[in-house]
Structure formats: C-alpha cells, structure tokens
Amino acid sequence: MSGPLRPQTRQFLKTAAAGAALLALSPARAQGLPKEGVEYRVVQPTQPTDSGGKLEVLEFFWYGCPHCFSLEPTLREWSRKLPADVSFRKVHVALGPAWEPHQQLYYTLEALGKNATLDEKVFTAIHVDRVSLDKPDRMADFLARQGVDRKAFLDTYESFAVRTRKQKAMQQARAWGLDGVPGLAVNGKYFTSPSMARGNAQALQVVEYLLDLERKARK
C-alpha cells in the first residue's frame, strides 16, 4: 500500500491536471495558432462595422437552427465577459424562405427592446417545447404569455423598420459569403464558425485570437 503523497508530488499532480484541462479546452494552444483557410477565413473586401471605435463581433444565426441553439449558452456567457473595447451583436439571417418568419420575429423583438429577455425563451420554445412559431398569430400568442402586448407585436411585425432591418441583414449575409449558420464575423475582416473551428468553445477561442490580431494592428 502506498503512503500519503508528499506536498511536492501533490503540487506536481495539480499542475499537470490543470495543464491537461487547459489543453483540452484550448485546441489552438495544443495544436498551434488558428490557421487562415482552416479555422477562419479573411473576407474580401473588408466590411463596414457599426461599432464606432470598438472591435466588432457579429453572430449570424437563425432561431430554427439546432446548431445555433447549441452555441447559444456558450456564446451568451462569453458575451457577458467581453472587454470594453469589443462590441457584440447578433444578426438573424434568412438563407431560405422558411427562415423568414423567424427573422421577422427577431427584428420585431429587437424593435420592441425585448431581445435580451426573450431570445432564450424563443430558442427554448422552438427546440425544447416544440412550439410552432411560424405564423405571426402564433408568435403573438406565445409572446403574450411572456408579457408582450399582442397588438404592439403585430403592428411592429409588419412595420417598415422591421422590413428594412431584414433587408440589411440579408445584404450583410451576402457580403460575408454566408452559406450556413452559426457564423462569427470579426471586425469586418475575418469569419469563423463552430464547423470551421471544430467546436463551439473552439470557435470563440478563434474569435479571441482574431480580436488580438486586430488589437495589435491598431498599435
């Protein structure tokens, strides 16, 4: 029977375990830096940003996408801890006609100032509770149960402002060469995704790497 571990041995094992955990969570460190054309791509031409002097990160997504739903908790936690020099914004796209009702729902909630409180509930309703949110009346019924005024929702849903925002989102999707979701755009120059980076956490590590490139470029 082996005796108790010496303090030096215990510390060594703790350090080794911490290192192994870090490598497991950080493939970029274990396998080298992210590679252009593999974990991310450069977008040409560079796209305009709407973040003033801050570094901009966009997430292209669709409420009905199971991969977007999978990414959402990790992305939400990451976005809560962003440094002051980074601006994060979601862009709901419609890469097919079936996506358009959800896109219009998103920008209606945005116009009503309800995204922050209701995004998670909409995702859960669609992917967990299997609530069909494909028609304005069904959306209004669901949102009324969340405290949203039904008439205000329906009036805003058909508004010119919402339709304009939808058009802008689709222009962005085309400009970025988007062919699927979720996707992450960094400061008008770089694009990555969980499929390119081989995982949700890995995609956000690539985003952090690209943000650091942009910080260095500014100096």
Describe this protein's structure:
55% of the residues lie in helices and 11% in strands. With 219 residues, the protein is of the alpha+beta class. The chain has a single domain (41-218), classed as Glutaredoxin (3-Layer(aba) Sandwich). Strands 1-5-4-2-3 form a 5-stranded mixed beta sheet, with helices on both faces. Strand 4 (183-186) and strand 5 (190-192) form a beta hairpin. Helix 4 crosses helix 8 (160-175) and helix 6 packs antiparallel against helix 7. The longest helix is centred in the first third of the chain and has 19 residues, at 7-25. It starts with 6 loop residues before the first helix and ends with a helix.
Provide a brief overview of the structure.
55% of the residues lie in helices and 11% in strands.
Distinctive features:
Glutaredoxin; 5-stranded mixed β-sheet; alpha+beta
